[in-house]
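hey
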């Protein structure tokens, strides 16, 4: 059984970072009664244990965008910065969305350890 199949769904894709045509990281979000459910699928990493579906988490507040040309996620009074720029799904055509959707099929399992919050990427 896939990890969180109802969440890791094309309708919850909010964007990506990295090269669209070379295994980008795909970001997911859904509003909930509590706030925001968030996650991502990492398709490319020097640490193979990080590849796959990140742990799904919920926060009362969440925002994603770019800071200094790199993806930044704001939640729980912290900022998580990535290495590449974030490209929001609103800017993408159906062909690009189709490419991102392949990550859902390609990586059905949760990455272990959690690929969500390696400490070196956090700021407070």
């Amino acid at each position: 059984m896939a990890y969180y199949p109802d969440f890791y769904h094309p309708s919850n894709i909010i964007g990506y970072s990295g090269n669209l045509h070379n295994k980008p990281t795909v970001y997911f979000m859904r509003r909930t009664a509590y706030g925001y459910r968030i996650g991502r699928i990492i398709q490319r990493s020097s640490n193979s244990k990080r590849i796959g579906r990140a742990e799904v988490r919920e926060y009362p507040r969440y925002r994603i965008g770019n800071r200094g040309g790199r993806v930044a996620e704001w939640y729980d009074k912290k900022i998580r910065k990535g290495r590449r720029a974030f490209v929001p799904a609103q800017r993408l055509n159906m062909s690009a969305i189709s490419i991102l959707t392949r990550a859902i099929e390609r990586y059905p399992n949760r990455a272990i350890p959690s690929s969500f919050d390696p400490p070196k990427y956090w700021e407070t």
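The two ends are 36 Å apart (CA to CA). Strands lie at 13-17, 25-31, 36-42, 52-53, 57-59, 63-67, 70-75, 78-81, 86-88, 122-123.
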